[in-house]
Structure formats: structure tokens, C-alpha cells
Amino acid sequence: MILTLDSVDFEKDYLADILDLIAKRLQSAHSNIDWSHPELCDLFDPMEHLAGIGSVAVQRYIASVCNFASAPREEALQLGPHRKAQPIALVLHSVANCWKHAEDLEPIRPNTKAPLLAIGVNPDAPYFVTNSLYEMGYQHYSGLMPDLIAWRDAVYGKYIKQN
Q1: Quick one: which of 143, 150, 92 has its CA closest to 121?
Q2: Which of 147, 46, 23 lies closest to 91, judged by CA?
Q3: Residue ranges per domain, the chain?
Q4: Which residues, listed in sequence order, are joined to residue 86 by a DSSP beta bridge?
Q5: What is the DSSP letter of 119?
Q6: How far apart are CA 130 and CA 66, in angstroms?
Q7: Spatial CA neighbour of 133 closest among 116, 150, 154, 151
Q8: Which three-class secondary structure state does DSSP give residue 143?
């Protein structure tokens, strides 16, 4: 039996399911916004929260891939597809960290914010998770999984020795 990357990467399917569920909820909420009066909408905060949960799920997947490949995280985050001249894995990792620590008393480190700033998103502004996804072309997480799989393949290709 020949093992493929997909056959040993069971977490990929879990992540795809989670992001699909979140995407459907985000799309549903988005369709209920009265765009003629968005200031009256109370859906933006829950949408940002859902997007933040998705970013943490992506970050968990990134950690899993790095662990499986015994890849140094900081190096692995530089691999794979780029958007706006930034590695998507690095940006998504930073988005998750900024979202998880947004309400901490200590400020978020500048190097954590830097990838978001590089794609034109202020991590101190409201809705930076959804804005980051939009700026990278992944509105509601659409199209992200193929790029994450390409990132995974780049990490495995560099760090896992073939027999």
C-alpha cells in the first residue's frame, strides 16, 4: 500500500469540515446584512468571532503539520503560497495570535502584527480577522484549503525524508 500525504493527514478533513461550517454561517449572516444601513447591523461582531474561531482552527492545523514534519515553526511559516507578497501560513498564524490575545492587558508584539500590516490590515482595528481574510482573497474562508494543502506539501517536501 502506498501512503499519500492526504492518507496520513486526517486533520485536513476535520479542518475542511470546520471551515465549511463557519463559511456557511458567515455567508448566511452576510446575506442578512442590510447594506443600505450597515451601521444598524448587529451581525458584524458575531461574524468576526466566528472568523476568529476559524483562524484558531487553521493555526492548530499549522501546528499539527509542523509537528508531524518535525519542522521548525518559524521556518515552515515562510513556505508555500503567498498573497500580497506574504506567506499565507505566517499571516494566518499571526491573525490567530492577534485574535486570541486582542483583549490581553499586555500589547501584542510588533512582530506578531507585522504580517497583517504587510497585507494592509491594522490588527488594532475592529474586524481585523475578516479584513485579513478579505485582503488575502479568502472571504468566508473560501479557497483557503487548497492553499493550505499546498503549504503542507511544501513543509512535508522540505522536512520529511523520502525512503
Answers
A1: 92
A2: 147
A3: 11-27+42-159
A4: 83
A5: T
A6: 25
A7: 116
A8: coil
Report whether 63 contacts 73 (CB < 8 A): yes
Which residue bears the cell 512582530?
111
Cell of 120: 494592509
Q: What cell does 130 get?
A: 475578516
Q: Residue holding cell 448587529?
A: 42
All 3 cell numbers of residue 81?
Answer: 503560497
pLDDT tens, 57-90?
999 999 999 999 999 999 999 999 999 999 999 9
Question: Which three cell numbers mark 71?
Answer: 519542522
Coil, helix or strand for 70?
A: coil
Give the list of residues 6+ apart from residue 132 with CB closer than 8 angstroms, or none.
Answer: 91, 95, 116, 119, 121
Instruction: Tell me the whole-structure pTM to 2 decimals.
Output: 0.90
| % helix, strand, coil for the chain, step of 5 | 65, 0, 30
∠77-16-150 over CA atoms, to 5°? 40
